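Please, is this right?
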Amino acid sequence: MTSPQKVNDFSIHVATVNGSGSQSSNNVLMRAIFRMGIPVNGKNLFPSNIQGLPTWFTIRVNKDGWTARKVDTEILVCMNDLTYVDDVKQLKAGSVVIHHDHMNVAALRKDVTSLAVPFSKIIAEACADPRLRKLAVNMVYVGVVAELVGITEEAIELAMAQQFKSKQKVLDLNRAAITAGRNHVKATWPELLDGKFSYQVQAMQKTQGKILIEGNAACALGSVFAGCSFVSWYPITPSTSVIDFFNEYSEKYKIDPETKLKNFAVVQAEDEMAAIGMVLGASWMGARSMTATSGPGISLMAEFTGFGYFAEVPAVIFDIQRIGPSTGLPTRTSQGDVLFAAHLSHGDTKNICLYPGNVEECYTLAAQAFDLAERFQTPVFVLSDLDLGMNFHMSDPFPYLDQPLDRGKVLTEKDQDQLAKFARYGDTDGDAVPYRTLPGLKDPRGVFFTRGSGHNAKAAYTESGAEYVTAMDRLNKKWETAKKYVPAPIVLGSGKNKIGVIAYGSSHDAMLESVHQLKTENGMDIDYLRIRAFPFAASVKDFIASHEKVFVVDQNRDAQMLSLLRIEKDLAAHAMKFESILHYDGYSLDARFVSDAILSSFNQKERKVS
């Protein structure tokens, strides 16, 4: 290793044990690189227990800003005796392994560089308190990596200050461990210093003004800006932190400055059924309300969701998707609830669904979800996933949302003309969206009975088949109206290429890189459309119609977005153009997987022709 092979373009893969305090160490390492102006992303792969099982954290450093998961690892840090053999075997040749000195890495692989570190000895000398060594030892590898790749002490200090705030004793302990790691490198491998290590970071200006934030935090912040004042939920991975962040932000920003009273309420329900029931009740009273859950939770919310759809009560549900069915792999990512959420409940039901593709959209679409829920008086699902929700992602600062809240068609005492002809489930404007009133209205003409059973335009009970058809047809017409208001898809490319790719949600980072790979490595131009909402805007049909072949990328087994596209009547004629790309192993999507799938499809056809 006499000269740098890669500068600002490599991955660090840390293998540790859950509950050992490694998350803080990994965040310091990632944030320090970010502080040096280098684009970075962190992916946490953790088990579904509290502590003791293996966990991995991958930091991708990329000067060009590609931050999707990359399969290959250049630097592996082995802190777990139970996994190091398999971890080392999976490396590509030329990688570097930083490991405990009792691990015999050199015997496993002759084509990787083994750097044995006496972590136990180093931390014993750096930390006098034996009780703290188990947690502080991870900071030793931060120091080792930092010294080898060139992370500055200033960047480490800034990252430490952000991670540990003003806890001076904690800062001093971790600083000592990092310094000990740096000193070990200087004393043991002086030939690797001064930029001679194979992988280096060099300061850039590409993160200036940007932030690192988790998608769940962004969803919570968007909800605060949207005026959400009531939350009911039951804890479930990976959605719980949406509520934790909402509570944290609300404690800071939703306290009345004069009375010091809270302008919000957060209730932990006994289960997900109670949670969505409370949300609908609070919304019916006029409060902007939401819940957050994952697949098993929305399974329990099916009946209440149907009630919200048929009785036309607003609600916002954040579904942070994970692998199913059943308990599945609760700490792995997936897009497995796409079909379920879109048609949740028995009978004919269509729910508005939003698919944020990055953390900024977790914020903006979260806020927009409340407007859509009240404008169309219906439950709205925001479908994020574990990868987007629980990992840190780089973003521009979020825009300040200063648009007035869209409460939809709500009548008050002032609306005398409308109250004179009020029909709770009528269509007086031709857009199929009825007017509603809120409890407390003094004018008796605005009083109605909310029911999930058969009802006519006046909200009176009926079992008439004809009146049921009228009600359902209006709901379907309202659905068509919503197409003009949901977030429009985003199209990248000239629009003149024969090949199109459709993706959605957290697949976006990988898709951007894949499009670049296909162009630069294979000379293949493709157009990429990212769906951001269901119902589909008219431009989705236009995109499909204008391409000879359309790949649809799903992070699930059953091609759920493709199925949703095929179900739509106006898209069925194009069904033969579709081809699925399916990724469902629980890891976040990587660009090479998509590129290889597209190339493989065309190579197979060429072989058949020849």
